[in-house]
User: What shape does this take?
Amino acid sequence: MKQAWLALADGAIFEGRALGYEGETVGEVVFNTAMTGYQEVLTDPSYKGQIITMTSPHIGNYGMTTEDAESRRIWAEGFIVKEASRLVSNWRSRQQAQDYLHEAKIVGIEGLDTRALTRHLREHGSQQGLITHVAGDHRRMVEKAQAAPSIVGRDLAAAVTCGKAFQWTEGSGEWAPSLDEKPRARSTKRWHVVAYDFGVKLNILRSLVDVGCDVTVVPASTTAMQIDALKPDGIFLSNGPGDPEGVPYAIEAVRQLIGSRPIFGICLGHQILGLALGLKTYKLKFGHHGANHPVMDLRTRKVEITSQNHNFAVAVTRPFSAIPDRPPVVDTSFGQVLVTHLSLNDHSVEGLACADHPVFSVQYHPEASPGPHDSAYLFTEFIKLMEKQHV
Amino acid sequence: MPRRTDIKSILLIGSGPIVIGQACEFDYSGTQACKALKEEGYRVILINSNPATIMTDPELADRTYVEPITVEVVEKVIERERPDALLPTMGGQTALNTTMALVKRGTLEKYGVKLIGASAEAIHKAEDREAFKHAMQRIGLRVPASGTAHTREEAIKVLDQTGFPSIIRPSFTMGGTGGNIAYNREEFEKLIDWALAMSPVSQVLIEESLIGWKEYELEVMRDLKDNVVIVCPIENLDPMGVHTGDSITVAPAMTLSDKEYQRMRDAAVRIMREIGVDTGGSNVQFGLDPKNGDMVVIEMNPRVSRSSALASKATGFPIAKIAAKLAVGYTLDEITNDITGVTKASFEPTIDYVVVKIPRFAFQKFRGADPTLTTQMKSVGEVMAIGRTFKESLQKAIRSLELNMNGLSSREGLDHGIPEGFDRQPALERVRQHLRTPIAERLWHVADGIRLGLSNDDLFALTKIDPWFLEQIRELMQFEALLVGQAGKKPAVLDESLLWEAKELGFSDDRIAQLIGSTSASVRKQRTKAGQSKRGVTYKRVDTCAAEFEAHTPYLYSTYGSECESRPTDRKKVIILGGGPNRIGQGIEFDYCCVHAAMALREEGIESIMVNCNPETVSTDYDTSDRLYFEPLTEEDVLNIVEREQPLGVVLQFGGQTPLKLALPLSKAGVRILGTSPDAIDRAEDRERFRDLLNKLGLRQAESGMARSVDEALQIASRISYPVMARPSYVLGGRSMQIVYDEPSLLEYMKSTVKASPKHPVLIDKYLSDAIEVDADAISDGTNVVVAGIMEHIEEAGVHSGDSACSLPPYSLDQSVVEEIRRQMKALALELGVIGLMNAQFAIKDHTIYVLEVNPRGSRTVPFVSKAIGVPLAKLAMKTMVGKSLPDLGLIEAPTPVHLSVKESVFPFNKFPGVDVLLGPEMKSTGEVMGIDQDFGWAFAKSQAGAGAPLPRGGTAFISVKESDRPASLEVVQQLQRLGFNIQATSGTAAYLRNHGVHAETVNKVMEGRPHVVDHIKNGQVALVVNTVSNASSHADSLSIRREALNKGLAYYTTIRGARAAVMGIEAILKKELTIRSLQEYHHHS
Assistant: This one.
């Protein structure tokens, strides 16, 4: 069994066994607490620049499929697990995790105390790290970790966005959410939605198709004018990796687009919208990465169990010490903005909506994948906005 | 939403006695519910007939009725207490069924009692097979093809749609009682009859077989605002066809992709909504076709369950407590997560470890029982283990089982590889045979299959166990082979990296030693010495959130990682060792004592540390003790904790035989044992030292001798004359104890049942026929002894004390005998230097008292005595062990209650068709109930009703007794006649009775032609059965009588003393109306 090491920028060293592609890799080390969906996590472009630690101890049990990938490749910089399964067991599986990692040239490490690592990251914050399969001086490993680029201020969206616009027509098919029995498409009209690809997860596109959208996916650098030229019924701002302040051009484009057409943003798209509205964003200590985060819709007081994956969050004037009785309102140059959703865990902002424009966004992932389908209704909300606008 | 203010008082129904399918988990949930509701300021009224529960402690509710859980009695409670609401979801199937009966009867409506937690409609929809099927179809979910039937003819019609194999499920039973799998028409007809008899509504569902499909369970919570969370997905290692209670289960699910899991989650949420469980927890079971992912819904329980207890322990999310709060109107987001203290209950726990549950069976107790695992639950208990990987968790669970297995030991002698000249073919055939049908030991046979070279495909074809699990076991076998390869190497120590790898894989020191040919002491030595070089056992916290938030609750498990989170305090602390898995002879009573020990320590300002591995229990609730270690109770695991915590001492006397076995090894390792010394324990356990002790005190014992060989046994027996009682040393629940009537039987016993050896001698003593047996419990601080309770057994000596009914105070003994027993108890306790509890059993024959045995520890009867006299004995005992004297504690003398308390045992015979119900020296009961009243007759009658066989008020009594019992039976029969019963008897008994002036009608024995007695019982023409038999040969003739009486739920007695008590009970219920009183009322005045 080949040895491997994880070195963190603060000097911590964890020893384990080599996993995946042989070599070395650096990135910001974060942990994800989802118990299922490792393939979706690995292929989520939002993990660009990061090394993922799965807190769930057995990874790879049900193998890898073609249809569960959330993008065309693995974007994460490295992968840390307690134990990668040697044997795969599931009727849908096409490939073993190890081979999948190896093919994608992803350097990983297994067999270390991932809980100790998670606690370390919780206490000391996410930080740069190095996975290496090459034995050597620990101090040198730590220095390499420290030298790794931070995700703060970096334009990582540029690295993961599509090269040119394309149409998306595929829905979720048999794996579509089935929490409600009602037919998902609300009307026979198809809505033309232009989706900004800051690192979009395919399940978002599938979810849009499910509710009746014809989707044109466009690169992150697409300007407002180019969008207007496409004459969409609605604009979608996708998730993506890293710091929203790293994509000023997108913020600018969104600023110009507010008011013209219905806009729906998810994750990075939500943060970009927040910045466009004039709000601030900040980096969380260790982010939210998991599939069990409770979020309250402050308008209905209902709680959704959500899938999350972000390192930054939108700040309104002051942090909330408790859950307010009604949605707090923030004044912006675009009029009043409602904080529609809050995290029950840390009271951070999870959703925004403009009072005067057909614009809303959420920090979490209504497309799930991995995670619960509780928030799938938001795609229908988007359709409702377009319907209203259409009338 | 704030809590409801329109209700002030709430009635809770418990689950009654421990039976297969309904065990401690409902004490755990009921206790949580009581605490949660009281905390909210509600007046809580509780009914539960089981005295060994924490929930029936008088502090937990405002009014506690230890009364039979029957519709009549609950109605009486409602009439008396006028509760505003009834919470029916905490007491298992018993509470649900009783509630539905109350609804039907109109009681709730009459007294304006609201149902909270689940509505009658929801319960009906979930529990009625047909209604459930329609509900599922309505929301587009697939259920197995099925149909219901009320008769055999209807059932056969359903077969056309479902085919074979055919799953048979009776409606409204728990633990799948009466359920089965039929493979052909003949079998089907037989099993249908039984299933119809088992269903209280004579309704059976016949279902398409999904044998071999994967099985999953989701624990779901829902609140008034329609917020729904899944607490935990559980995967069964044993595929469909084995009841989930009998399956090895794993949390979280191991072989489900996110897509599949979310589809299942969606379905679970929709089911909650469709069934209409508005406030509380439910569990939903799914089947999944491993070939294509097809999903079917198996069933849903609209209440807390065994699985919800497991899910609570597995995740740290207290389902019952939260369900109780939801029932009174809170929403999930208003309830704080106790473990983190900062987050809310409205989330889904995520875990970073693997939990394995393994059931524990007791087939060896029930000769003739079919050990095949089917859709009807047969296990009597379970263990849970937590490890960072499945492999570690599995191995920890195996050693938690206390089956003398330190790992996946070979059943084929292949622990050290395949020996030279080993004949592989017959072994392979044996293993294949074992794997084809699910049985309790299947896991070990899988391991042997791997050792013998079977591939995962072979194993999957035989077992349908998911290949992922098979591969995990294979990895363990490969590592075992690696360890065996180290055997004989010099020096005889393991390579350090191998050692740590072995420990990470969950191997016990013992197993490692066995494989490498060393001793566990030397493995331990290497391990702890190496520990100085930074590696060693570490403890992690169960925190509901995979370390995302800090856990403030020290709920710990061991693993071999790089960081330890135990953070021991520097407080004064005591470790309490729990009782491990429930099995016959070791049940909830011991858990009750352990919980009291923790409470006592809290009151004394000493930190309590609980160690246990039984997920059903109150002791393993994270807030019972200050710190909880969910760990196996082995020497290795306990010593690790002791080393980490450095307690004042360890308490062994509350957890039954499990911790007692550790007394010597622990004290040898220098651990201080609190209370009675290990030497005193040995003096009482070792048969020869015990005899010396009695001689010294001038106490009598039945004539006896210690046999170390077959010859010696025969010599002793002929010296003291037959019948004799034979018992091995250090046994639990009378395991292998037997009354032997003649020399051939003794030979047979010595050869097949026990293997006597100098190390394991067998005690042969004179069997005192027709003696009265007495149980006594005392408490001592070393100087003062208080005899807390003297209980007269209803059945004669020879019936295991755990199986006998008993009365406190004695109902027929002379006061002088009682006083003499009291004196002897004191002498014994003082001589042994007991600090804490002591139990002894006596036999009284012709006014002479014989000491049968002494147990210097908390006994099975401690909770019963505590409830009967209103003194918390276990709690006080714990306090004596930390230095308090009995006068300090205000206990000078035990109160003598003016009421009578009767304990009756409850048996699992209805789960084992064909097994005889006769009682003997080997314990067979799983639980107990208590009946309390002003006189013995009513107390006894209540105990019978509580145990499920209420006494009849009239009708026909059927009498068939052995010859030697005839004179004694005469009085019983005359009384019955006087009370208006018709008497029927078999020819011999009838002739005797007629000769003595009793009008007795003769009925045919089964072999005498029809109609015979069993026909009469089946036709409902018999109300009471009295049937005693002499020895083995006559048992078979009358077996069908006893089985049929059992199936019909008749009151039946197999001893004359039992029948006599029944007559007293019948007389009482005919003379006086039922009255009930709460414990609070009983003890306020006494």
In short: Chain B has 37 helices and 38 strands. The radius of gyration of chain B is 28 Å.
